[in-house]
UniProtKB/TrEMBL annotation:
<feature type="active site">
    <location>
        <position position="36"/>
    </location>
</feature>
<keyword id="KW-0732">Signal</keyword>
<keyword id="KW-0560">Oxidoreductase</keyword>
<dbReference type="GO" id="GO:0008113">
    <property type="term" value="F:peptide-methionine (S)-S-oxide reductase activity"/>
</dbReference>
<comment type="similarity">
    <text>Belongs to the MsrA Met sulfoxide reductase family.</text>
</comment>
<dbReference type="Pfam" id="PF01625">
    <property type="entry name" value="PMSR"/>
</dbReference>
<comment type="function">
    <text>Has an important function as a repair enzyme for proteins that have been inactivated by oxidation. Catalyzes the reversible oxidation-reduction of methionine sulfoxide in proteins to methionine.</text>
</comment>
<dbReference type="InterPro" id="IPR002569">
    <property type="entry name" value="Met_Sox_Rdtase_MsrA_dom"/>
</dbReference>
<feature type="domain" description="Peptide methionine sulphoxide reductase MsrA">
    <location>
        <begin position="29"/>
        <end position="182"/>
    </location>
</feature>
<feature type="signal peptide">
    <location>
        <begin position="1"/>
        <end position="22"/>
    </location>
</feature>
<dbReference type="InterPro" id="IPR036509">
    <property type="entry name" value="Met_Sox_Rdtase_MsrA_sf"/>
</dbReference>
<protein>
    <recommendedName>
        <fullName>Peptide methionine sulfoxide reductase MsrA</fullName>
        <ecNumber>1.8.4.11</ecNumber>
    </recommendedName>
</protein>
Length: 202
């Protein structure tokens, strides 16, 4: 983990000279899939500049799928989150860094015990710059062998995003005592918060 964090920190510093541009005014959106969306949501909610995180489904071929249908692995969707953020407070580069710390991007179609294409690692880019940055970081992290295995994250265009049912929204905060939250999400969240302690909301 330390090697991954160091590699990302170095790349972030270098990237600001490669992709230097004035921060946008108004809110922007990043769409990431890092396995279970309850976990993704809980982590990205912690970051300063993130205004809202919406759990849902992206990358599939069925309109308005239910959670139960997506769980069958037949719709092509990934559990994903729309991360609404203020670019003057947090950059897309910093969100990408959080993406690579938030999960293991070398696991194909799974995260831990969650197995299936719906748990794949994916970046759904909204524009050419997001695509370029995602590909840049993946290429550099692979070149530096930040992980022991190659990154398998999909970098694909954002098309449709379907919001998941209401009970999935803000899930960890509302269900923290449930076993999955307590024994799977909570330990991961604590590790994530340690890495990004300087970027957390007060």
């Amino acid at each position: 983990m330390k090697k991954i964090i160091c590699s990302i920190a170095v790349l972030l510093t270098a990237c600001f000279s490669v992709f230097a541009s004035a921060p946008k005014k108004g809110l922007d959106t990043a769409t990431f899939a890092t396995g279970c969306f309850w976990c993704t949501e809980a982590k990205f909610q912690q970051l300063k500049g993130v205004e809202k995180v919406i759990s849902g489904f992206s990358g599939g071929h069925v309109a308005n799928p239910s959670y139960e249908l997506v769980c069958t692995g037949t719709t092509g969707h990934a559990e994903a989150c729309n991360i609404i953020y203020d670019p003057t407070k947090i950059t897309y580069d910093e969100l990408i860094a959080a993406f690579f710390v938030a999960h293991d991007p070398t696991q194909l179609n799974r995260q831990g015990n969650d197995v299936g294409t719906q748990y794949r690692s994916a970046i759904f880019y909204h524009n050419a710059q997001q695509k370029q940055k995602a590909q840049y970081y993946i290429s550099k992290l692979n070149a530096e062998k930040a992980y022991k295995d190659p990154i398998v994250t999909q970098v694909v265009p954002y098309k449709a995003f379907y919001k998941a049912e209401d009970y999935h929204q803000n899930y960890f905060n509302q269900n923290g005592s449930q076993p999955y939250c307590k024994y799977v999400i909570q330990p991961e969240l604590e590790k994530f918060k340690k890495v990004f302690k300087d970027k957390l909301k007060q």
